[in-house]
């Protein structure tokens, strides 16, 4: 294993909004890049390589839109490639940037992207097209229905209730009040969630993420670069990925390896990250968690996959206050994906927020004394999972 | 965010660090499969992906349990799937494994897999890319790659962009049309030997020159229509290669990759600074000082013959003032000093989206001694060049040898 | 400051090859109103819908197995929100483990009163037995069949 340590030296995040009519897509990317470079005290010409974060092109309405984004990231003449692992793209992009440095190839790498989900007309229509045309395209599958079906199984398997789900929304909305960059910054109570209209049972409007526009960017550097320039940094100490079968129906029935109620491959991905970071007891060693959960029910299986709660126990632990700011291990202190979802970068925002926590720069949503944080990303039909451990 | 937190010191060692450095390249290609399904309707895309992966594993004498990670590349608009990685993942062994996707270009999947191996993130990686022809119009699908702000209303796609580049080049370098025809003839002749089942006849230059102009100055005889193809490569770190006693290894000596600016109008299409940058990265790493004489064989982008000409220059094979002469004297032909595209190139097999990865696969097979009918006897050092995007926006260069290190170390 | 917008839409068509396995599956539906799965020899699981290889074991599947028409609901959802190019709500669909199958196949649930979400959810609870119904005129596609509760 290569010993080059990789640090994050700069973070840039938009203030996420429903629409950004004032900026076209590359301009949103540029905005995030500018913020990250300024934060890192670097200039575009210092960057040796770019990893571009972009999930389905169709959501932007531009095929291979990263080609348009080359200028926004100052890519001309430089190493450049794009990552797409669905919703986990943002985290996978940071992982790819990490590999550029850990391999010894580069010292300074930029990860960047943006999304304008609100402009695409109807994201569920496009997200229906992620299913294969042979068997499942004709069914009205979308990410909402797919994860509603996960909720149904979790209700039957663990007794999860709609009130349990509502508590996740209430918690994350409250957290977002302390995050000026979050899209949804209005607190709600359980009653509000329970009386909001059904999208796909049991997921209601307030159980669901918004469609956000904005960008995110991180500047990564090698340890030798960081020491040479006496820079402030936080460290990526663990990286892992794993994926499930694409067939949802295989995650049920007889003799399944993974249950659609859970996030089995996410647990395996965390195991890999933890192993690399030397973490043996996440409950004791992890101080903050930014877990990708675009629907309230999905936060539960993410918490369990991260080893922060035994299977089926996260609902009661959330009810006891374990996962809110001030609790044992705050989950999504930024408000999470439930409050901001610019798909191409949502998983990068998880890394950014985890980094801010251990850096002590999370302002009003800071977890006190956080030194170890984790981040996760989910992509495809609950299929691709990426995880990271960030430490100060 | 706290602005300006970081120090802005600029020690003089900065520029030194940014120069291309000789990096360690402890990895090799141990398995290759290039598939050209004759009957595209016989298998689903997923089944074809499964088959090409099984083919590469078999070529490497490995099974999927030996694979630590996978990097794939496909184009959503060509495939008709909004995240093409999803349905493909199972076919290529993604379940339970680390799998990533680089849709920017098929060759980028190889780049990322190599970086991961060098970073210690998985010792054996599988690289897979594909290019189906299920879309009603490839060019229409690719036209969607234009931005809606300034370019969508224009008829800009892969072919017209190539036409723009060719026109620019012809204006910059006189008498280029004949050289273009000659390159097509060369590649068709190579293809007739390499893949006789696939190669198109005829190959006479006069016939090529008499083609119908479709996108000025490109004629229908200068390029081959898009066809269904897939390719898979197994890359392994040196320790695993030694432990397993792997045979037929193409040692990776250098990799470089870079991009042009976004807007065609911002570029001088007759120049490719990104190819020069990519070549510099790869050659520095591989300790290549004299590319015009170093290589035994090369596989370069020839989606139009003008691309191949730009590759000659960008890879340092010859300057543009020499193009016409070198093409005419057979330097780059089968019996020349530096045969280019012995596989027949895209003139013989054009799985458009993954053609770049096919160039890497073909070059690897040369130094592995596995290039079959088109093997250059004694080929020990090869270079592959891949280009993707409109008018060669992305350029990637890979140097491979039959030994882990060259004479110069 | 006047801010302009431009409307664009994507209009591209595809013809996707289904391959031999899926083709045979759909021909059986079209011509015989019969569903089949394929068995993975390594895990023993009968995969429905059928595939020529298992993505879990990467082994080619070996035999056709008749499945259904009865089955049990493994999961469901009821959609109340309209989405462009998707059917008008409300509608219910989910996954059914057909008799003799080991994995579940997706399909619509019909014949359930969806007006009260809680009652509808109870009617479709995991474990509910269903029967596969086939359209009289079939094309050889997933919409040729749907599921209704038994009894």
Which stretches of chain B are poorly predicted, pLDDT < 50 over at least 5 residues? 9-18
- Count of distinct strands of chain C: 8
What is the H-and-E element order of chain C?
HEEEEEEHEE
Radius of gyration of chain B: 21 Å
Low-confidence stretches of chain C: none
The count of helical stretches of chain B stands at: 16
Radius of gyration of chain C: 19 Å
Largest sheet of chain B: 9 strands, mixed
What string gives the helices and strands of chain B in order?
HEHEHHEHEHHHHEEEHEHHEHHHHEE
Structure summarized in a few sentences:
The complex is a heterotrimer of chains A (392), B (409) and C (151). Chain B is of the alpha/beta class and 409 residues long. Chain B is 36% helix and 17% strand.
How is this structure best described in words?
The complex is a heterotrimer of chains A (392), B (409) and C (151). Chain A is built from 13 helices and eleven strands. Chain A has a domain of 134 residues: Thiolase/Chalcone synthase (Peroxisomal Thiolase, Chain A, domain 1). The two termini of chain A are 21 Å apart. With 409 residues, chain B is an alpha/beta fold. Chain B folds into two domains: 122 residues, Peroxisomal Thiolase, Chain A, domain 1, CATH 3.40.47; 227 residues, Thiolase/Chalcone synthase (Peroxisomal Thiolase, Chain A, domain 1). Chain B is built from 16 helices and eleven strands. About 2% of the residues of chain B have low confidence. Chain C has one domain. The radius of gyration of chain C is 19 Å and the shape is globular. Chains in contact: A-B, A-C, B-C. At the A-B interface, strand 1, helix 1, helix 2, strand 3 and helix 3 of A face helix 1, helix 4, strand 3, helix 5 and strand 8 of B.
